[in-house]
Amino acid sequence: MPVISAERMQGRIDAIVEAASATFSAKGFEAASIAEIARAAEVSDGLIYRYFSNKRDLLLRVLQVFYERVVADLETESARGANFRERLHHLIRRHLTNFVADRELCRLFLSEVRVAGDYKGSDIQALNRRYANVLKALIEDGIARGEVRPDVSPRLVRDVIFGAVEHISWPYVTGDGTLDVAATADTVTALICGGICLPANT
User: CA 114, CA 92: separation in Å to the nearest integer?
Assistant: First the structure.
């Protein structure tokens, strides 16, 4: 068997992951097949199994690539803005935008991965924690700057925000109706700041 360069091998893997992402998004995890993914990536079924042990292993890689991108985006957004309220608004809007831009992958994560027995302790859980901790760090920074009440729990506020956004977005993610990102971000930001921000920052 000829030896291929590391660059060419990575190119093959990237093509497989990209094809899998598109196929899972279009058909769902259960309906998608390795054969369809192989055709889309223009490789053989056997080549996919050289790099991934099974279809679920491939799904986890797809979601890992997705999460690495959205975590980087969220970290960038959380640094924007002149004060806590502006930074929080940018973060919430980005979080909502992720549901709109990648609703199929968000649905796969929520319905196929997060509820699975192998989620705890996985690389995907670690990325999800990193994603959620961007918001927790923002709240902690707001407290340190005197913009947020010192008696609030950053962990609790983080869970309230992400829980609310997920609940609001879920009907859209499952194909029911539309999601007004701008209006929803404004409303959620106002509700949160009304409860946790010090008077000069509401």
Answer: 21
Q: What's the CA gap between 14 and 199, in Å, rounded?
A: 50
pTM, two decimals, is 0.83
DSSP 8-state secondary structure symbol assigned to residue 110: I
- DSSP 8-state code for residue 48: H
**35-68 per-position pLDDT tens digit:** 999 999 999 999 999 999 999 899 889 988 988 8
| 28 SS3 class | coil
Among 77, 110, 109, 79, residue whose Cα is nearest residue 181: 77
128 by DSSP, 3-state: which? Answer: helix
Q: Is residue 76 within 8 Å of residue 139, measured between CB atoms?
A: no
d(CA 119, CA 153): 26
Is the sign of the CA dihedral 183, 97, 142, 79 positive or negative?
Answer: negative
Quick check: helix, strand or coil at residue 117? Answer: coil
Q: Which two tokens stand for residue 45?
A: 């079924």
Task: Judge contact between 188 and 164, C-beta under 8 A.
Answer: yes
Tokens 């961007």 found at: 134
Give residue 117's identity as a one-letter amino acid code: G
